[in-house]
Amino acid sequence: MKKTLSIIALSIIGFGLVSCKKENKEVQGAETAAKDSTASTAATAPADPMAAPAAGQAVTPVKSDQPSTSLALSESNFDFGKIKKGDKVQHVYEVTNTGTNPLVISEVKPGCGCTAPDFTKEPILPGKKGKITLHFDSSSFDGNVQKYADVFANVDKSPIKLTFTANIQP
After folding, report:
1. DSSP H or E segment with residue 65
2. pTM
């Protein structure tokens, strides 16, 4: 029994340690199918509390190490469109502090080693703007990809998920 549980635990742990190698076409198809089925029920389903705010939508405050505030994103999703395999591209997401306390972005954590973040490190004063830049290296990919980065800040519903897609051409 202990061996069986150990094997199951190692399988689960091993499954979580996925690298940024070429993505399996079957997995991509399953993700697309899941997205399509989710999209059809989005109008009737309650809002996902972990989803990124829509462009211009404010995030409400919550208790944290820093006094809480709120923010608005110019966008939370970006599509690079078709890019050539091996291209290194980047996109800047604009962040506006819509609250009354300074906005502090403590970390931007990409979901994959192929994505590297840069972000405004200084506190963003109320009414002011900051930037989060995601750099993507397409060398290890073919076809359609979707990547994300989690933004940790002194706002409610942190982390905020930023996503991008690209269609990698040979």
Report:
1. none
2. 0.64
Contact 67, 104 (CB under 8 A): no
d(CA 64, CA 156): 9
- Which H/E stretch holds residue 70? none
164/145 Cα distance (integer angstroms): 8
3-state secondary structure 83-121: EECCCEEEEEEEEEECCCCCECEEEEEECCCCEEEEECC
CA distance 129 to 98: 9
| pLDDT the model gives residue 67 | 83
> Is residue 19 helix, strand or coil?
coil
Q: What distance in Å separates the CA atoms of residue 136 and residue 87, rounded to the nearest whole number?
A: 8
Distance CA 163, CA 147 (A): 6
Regarding beta strands 88-97 and 160-169, do their DSSP bridges make them parallel or antiparallel, or are they unpaired? unpaired
Q: Which amino acid, residue 14? A: G
Q: Give the DSSP letter string of 28-45.
A: HHHHHHHHHHHHHHTTTS
What is the per-residue pLDDT across 121-149, written as a single tens digit (0 to 9) for each? Answer: 999 999 999 999 999 999 999 999 999 99
Burial class of residue 120 (count of CB atoms within 10 Å of its CB; 0-12, 13-18, 19+): middle
